[in-house]
Specification:
single chain; 766 residues; alpha+beta; 6-stranded mixed sheet; 16 helices; 29% strand; globular
């Protein structure tokens, strides 16, 4: 077994769906997309007996795949005793509410098949053809997960005891006194994440010198009392411990000896001066340690992977043993950004805006030679000292709930999630953006992986419309199909689309225009299950003239995991004027490089397979808090001397703020660099074909057409299969282009063609 070639598998678990890409030892590619609840929605195709049903669809499941699962239909859950291919043998006769026990449910009924295992394990078993209870083949596994993010936002972490310097017990309750919404009249402060705070007798001065020794005896007694009360996670944040960690180190040993299983020290997680975010970093790390640890142990325990790496918020991969919860909060969005860059560069685009619209939210980021990074990660009410890709997130996804509340239409932030899902899933869900797109002819019902209920979506739309305007005068066909003429409903639903598109465009403005970059100079790379539906409309709002929809765009975050590289970061706080430290920058970066290189070599990466990543100097004017990142290099590829750094800093400052302060001295706040493994050849094989010039392209012949609301009228829009488009053809909007897991909406005044590597390119007609 040790020498047997391994599968290469990447799994990204999102709020609604879990995406999986696998490559077997022969190089063949496999794909799976399952609900993050670990469930599959299927339709019954045959009913051979009361104890058996046959699933419809082209999926071919290995014998025994559904053993131990349950089948839910009409509110009842039935145990699956065994399966042969798509035929399920049930432990009891199929019964439906209102129908006598033993009756067989009708062909065409939707069922939910629920696995007892995590969605990641379900997806891996599916693509490898390994039923429960069977040993999986050797797997080299890469994961991105929202487990930590969801637990933080839903406040489902561990009970944490927070240990701080005496006199600072209310440190995190006071915070930085910044109001989350400047003009809000009803301000409700979130409850702290810790369950109890303990003030510890100890104190260092600002240089790290001991003013008051740590009282270990009192600390040990308090720790034993808390362990006895059921506490297992602790966070430590002492004043000035970034200068001298000895008190935090000794306190951590005392807590571990008392029985705490997880102890997070602020000085171990960040050697930075700022006590509030440093304390929040330690608190969040302790709050999520048990959940993430259990999740990774559950996956590895069932799979026993040959290797397991997890994506960090900064877009690099680390071993599971070295994965810290504080680095997990933007794991999925980071994987998506890496995948978008890989897809964009494959299509020869170097300036990219990544647009990831999934079922729950939309994440956007910017690439211009390197993905922009932040020193801090902000999730909900917490600010962590942890590097992350500069991702802007907005609560607008396919499952975002569309409602009329407090006298206005709203999209999100609540989501229908995987259960019950949008109204059209037929499980009693609310009106969502998916339903709005369906009712306006922007989705193709026949291409859904399971049966959808247009009538249920129309009913929910009617209920929301009744709340807003007292009901629609003209609602269209009772079945939910669009009417021939414009109706009140269509105009009302268009408002939800416009609101969602404007919110997503606003997120892109935050990472571009507000930071001094013109979005019209970039290509919008759209992905996620819903990204292709909204990309052209969002691009129109921003003046962007080109959109790229990559192959496997609905699974691009999993592709990003395959493209990711093993990476280690090194940081050093400086807090000296640039004039004083400029001549020492080279030596400081070399020492940091050796530290990061050693960490990679310990993981088994050969010295010859390690390369330097970006080296960054964080500059600010003395007396200011915010910094600007300036890339540093000793060669001609970037600024290296003091004068070059000052020029680059002033250029960035002027672009960001519109002025330059007089007589202010630039200061180096900190340094950061990355060392990473050399990029391997991609595991995805794009469709290669010769590209035609724009003047040579012809119009393809559509397979079908459907009614489509273009914003003001119903029109007949052609529907094309993406895999049948060639670079010699262009499809003019309005039209729809369908593929597995998503549909691309080509708006009026836009047209689409396939490029030489299979990327779908949408361009604004002049």
């Amino acid at each position: 077994m040790a020498g047997e070639p391994a599968w290469r598998i990447a799994v990204d678990t999102g709020g609604t769906f879990t995406d999986c890409l696998g490559v077997d030892p022969e190089g063949r590619q496999f794909r799976a997309k399952v609900l993050s609840s670990g469930a599959l929605r299927m339709v019954i195709g045959e009913r051979p007996s009361p104890h058996a049903v046959v699933l419809a669809g082209s999926q071919n499941f290995v014998d025994g795949f559904f053993e131990g699962w349950t089948m839910a239909v009409a509110g009842e859950a039935i145990e699956i005793a065994g399966s042969v291919g798509n035929r399920l043998e049930l432990a009891e006769p199929v019964s439906v509410a209102g129908v006598a026990p033993g009756a067989v449910v009708a062909v065409g009924a939707e069922v939910v098949l629920q696995s007892p295992e995590d969605a990641a394990v379900v997806a891996i078993r599916w693509i490898t053809g390994t039923p429960p209870g069977r040993t999986l083949p050797p797997v080299a596994l890469r994961l991105a997960t929202t487990q930590g993010t969801n637990a933080l936002l839903e406040r489902k972490g561990a009970r944490v005891a927070m240990f701080v310097t005496r006199g600072f017990g209310d440190l995190l309750e006071i915070g930085n006194q910044q109001r989350p919404e400047l003009f809000a009249l009803d301000i409700r402060k979130p409850e702290p994440l810790y369950a109890v705070v303990v003030e510890v007798e100890e104190r260092l001065n600002s240089s790290g010198t001991v003013l008051r020794e740590l009282d270990e005896r009192s600390l040990a007694a308090e720790a034993e009392r808390l362990v006895g009360a059921g506490f297992h996670s602790a966070a430590i944040a002492f004043m000035h411990s970034f200068r001298n960690s000895s008190h935090e180190d000794r306190a951590a040993r005392t807590l571990a000896a008392a029985g705490f299983r997880h102890v997070s020290r602020s000085s171990d997680l960040s050697r930075r001066i700022r006590i509030v975010p440093r304390a929040q970093t330690a608190l969040v790390d302790a709050y999520l340690a048990e959940i993430l640890g259990s999740y990774l142990e559950g996956v590895t325990g069932r799979l026993e992977p040959r290797s397991l790496h997890v994506m960090t918020s900064a877009g690099g991969l680390v071993r599971a043993a070295e994965y810290r919860p504080k680095d997990s909060l933007l794991s999925g969005p980071a994987a998506g950004a890496v995948g978008a860059v890989a897809a964009g560069r494959r299509s020869a685009y170097e300036r990219i805006l990544a647009f990831d619209m999934g079922g729950t939210s939309t994440d956007v980021s910017r690439f211009d030679g390197e993905l922009e990074l932040r020193n801090e990660t902000v999730v909900g009410p917490v600010r962590l000292l942890s590097p992350s890709i500069a991702v802007e997130t907005v609560a607008a996804g396919g499952g975002s709930i569309c409602a009329f509340k407090d006298g206005r239409v709203r999209v999100g932030p609540e989501s229908a999630g995987a259960e019950p899902g949008p109204a059209c899933y037929g499980r009693g869900g609310p009106l969502t953006l998916t339903d709005v797109n369906l009712l306006l002819g922007r989705l193709v019902p026949s291409r859904f992986p399971f049966r959808i209920d247009s009538k249920a979506a129309a009913q929910r739309a009617g209920e929301v419309g009744a709340d807003a305007v007292g009901g629609f005068a003209d609602f269209g066909d009772a079945s939910g199909a669009p009417a021939d003429a414009a109706t009140d409903r269509d105009a009302f639903l268009t408002g939800f689309l416009a609101l969602a598109n404007e919110r997503m465009a606003g997120a892109i403005r935050a990472i571009s225009i507000r930071r001094g970059y013109d979005p019209s100079e970039y290509t919008l790379v759209a992905f996620g299950g819903a990204g292709a539906q909204h990309a052209a409309a969002v691009a129109e709002l921003l003046g962007i003239r080109r959109v790229l929809i990559p192959e496997d765009g609905a699974l691009l975050s999993a592709l990003g995991l395959n493209e990711g590289r093993l990476e280690r970061w090194a940081e050093r706080q400086v807090l000296e004027s640039l004039a004083e430290v400029a001549v020492r920058l080279g030596d400081m970066f070399e020492a940091m490089s050796a530290e990061a290189r050693a960490a990679l070599e310990q993981e088994g990466v050969a010295e010859s397979a390690i390369e330097a990543g970006p080296r960054t100097v964080f500059l600010r004017y003395q007396g200011q808090e915010s910094t600007l990142a300036v890339g540093w290099s000793e060669d001609s590829s970037g600024p290296g001397s003091e004068s070059e750094l000052v020029a680059a800093f002033e250029k960035g400052y002027l672009a960001r703020y519109g002025y330059l302060p007089e007589s202010r001295i630039p200061e180096v706040e900190s340094l950061r660099l990355a060392m990473r493994s050399v990029a391997a050849e991609t595991s995805q094989t794009p469709r290669a074909c010769a590209e035609a010039s724009a003047g040579e392209r012809t119009r393809p012949a559509p397979r079908l057409a459907q009614s489509f609301w273009d914003g003001s009228a119903w029109v007949e829009a052609p529907v094309f299969e993406r895999e049948q488009l060639t670079p010699q053809e262009h499809a003019a909007g309005p039209c729809l282009i369908v593929e597995s897991h998503t549909v691309t909406v080509v708006e009026n005044r836009w047209r689409a063609h396939v490029d030489r590597v299979g990327g779908l390119v949408l361009e604004r007609a002049s």
